């Protein structure tokens, strides 16, 4: 946890420095709709739940999510969702990605009969054994499916501001993909959305690190920011210079579960320890957002949606319960629709005009 706190301090200091060096985004004297932020957690195929939530909100309201949020942040599977929304995909199209392409990505296309079930069981067992020495999956299937979705779109084509955390394992530091929503952010707008998606989703032991021109061995942003609501709130407060007391934040998780306490922890408890570390990240990220926006008891515009489920019931690479996740997402969306309407669906936002300082010189 000490390492994670150092990362947060590093992130704050770096962004505060950027804001003061270049000048914060000017909002003075301009009355407009409140700044709204959407964040989506990591969680592999469990991303079907927030994708279904978004699809249901769009279907009921008749409004696109991307048209109602000034900043969208996502990590890992949440990064894919954030990039998809910023690329102009509807919630329904993103949900279809999980339902139709998700099983192919994780080598779990459904089959009929006893023989297909046996083959699927053997495949899962073989991949679990493979995971002991290398990544459980190759990135080829994920690259192919994401390539169909994103095509040749770049981060510079995003319709709103985005923040996509990754981790630079080659240099031991943070790597955050961002739109050019500040004059100093003059590089990432050139990066293909495909590369950003592959990097933020490169979960250790599940997928290999991702490299592309200008960066090497990038890992899943969940290494330090699986829940990106703190990162997004910091971005708004520091780089963008927003008055966070007036901001609104909707955070979508990919389910949570209670991790029972243990007095003694050994090597056999590695899974428990990893989950505890993720829980610690989640709590700190949530607390950071609360500090910047105000506690939900005093600020009703900070909403966290992350249903609690039995421990181990869902896995990030298990396609067998996708329909359950979809039903959960739709149900939560319907229950929260009045609050979502009141807080976030305000009939559009101010246009996002990115800074592309190098674009005119591009060859």
TrEMBL record:
Chain span(s) of sequence motif GXSXG: 74-78
Motif (DGA/G): 220-222
Keyword terms: Hydrolase, Lipid degradation, Lipid metabolism
Pfam family, one: Patatin
UniProt motif (GXGXXG) ranges: 42-47
Domain PNPLA residue range list: 38-233
Catalytic site positions: 76, 220
Family listed: Belongs to the patatin family.
Name assigned to this protein: CBASS cGAMP-activated phospholipase
Native source organism of the sequence: Sphingomonas naphthae
Classification lineage: Bacteria, Pseudomonadati, Pseudomonadota, Alphaproteobacteria, Sphingomonadales
């Amino acid at each position: 946890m000490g390492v994670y706190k150092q990362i947060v301090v590093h992130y704050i200091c770096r962004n505060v420095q950027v804001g003061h060096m270049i000048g914060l985004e000017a909002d003075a004297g301009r009355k407009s709709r409140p700044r709204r932020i959407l964040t989506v957690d990591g969680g592999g195929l469990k991303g079907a739940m927030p994708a279904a939530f978004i699809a249901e909100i769009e279907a009921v309201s008749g409004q696109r999510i991307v048209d109602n949020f000034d900043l969208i942040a996502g990590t890992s599977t949440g990064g894919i969702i954030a990039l998809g929304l910023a690329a102009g995909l509807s919630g329904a199209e993103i949900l279809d990605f999980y339902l139709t392409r998700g099983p192919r990505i994780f080598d779990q296309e459904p089959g009929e009969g006893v023989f297909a079930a046996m083959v699927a069981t053997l495949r899962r067992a073989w991949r679990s054994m493979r995971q002991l020495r290398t990544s459980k999956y190759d990135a080829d299937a994920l690259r192919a499916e994401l390539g169909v979705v994103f095509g040749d779109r770049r981060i510079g084509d995003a319709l709103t501001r985005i923040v996509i955390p990754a981790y630079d394992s080659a240099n031991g530091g943070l790597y955050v993909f961002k739109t050019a929503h500040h004059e100093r952010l003059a590089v990432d707008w050139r990066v293909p959305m495909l590369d950003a998606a592959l990097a933020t989703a490169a979960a250790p032991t599940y997928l290999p690190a991702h490299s592309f021109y200008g960066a090497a061995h990038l890992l899943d942003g969940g290494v330090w920011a699986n829940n990106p609501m703190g990162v997004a709130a910091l971005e708004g407060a520091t780089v963008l210079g927003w008055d966070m007391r007036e901001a609104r934040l909707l955070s979508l998780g990919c389910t949570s579960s209670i991790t029972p306490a243990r007095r003694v922890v050994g090597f056999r408890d590695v899974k428990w320890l990893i989950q505890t570390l993720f829980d610690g990240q989640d709590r700190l990220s949530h607390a950071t957002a609360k500090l910047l926006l105000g506690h939900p008891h005093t600020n009703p515009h900070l909403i966290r949606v992350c249903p609690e489920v039995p421990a181990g019931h869902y896995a990030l690479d298990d396609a067998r319960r996708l329909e359950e996740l979809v039903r959960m997402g739709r149900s939560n969306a319907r229950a929260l629709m009045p609050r979502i309407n009141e807080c976030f669906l305000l009939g559009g936002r101010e246009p996002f005009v990115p800074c592309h300082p190098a674009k005119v010189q591009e060859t």
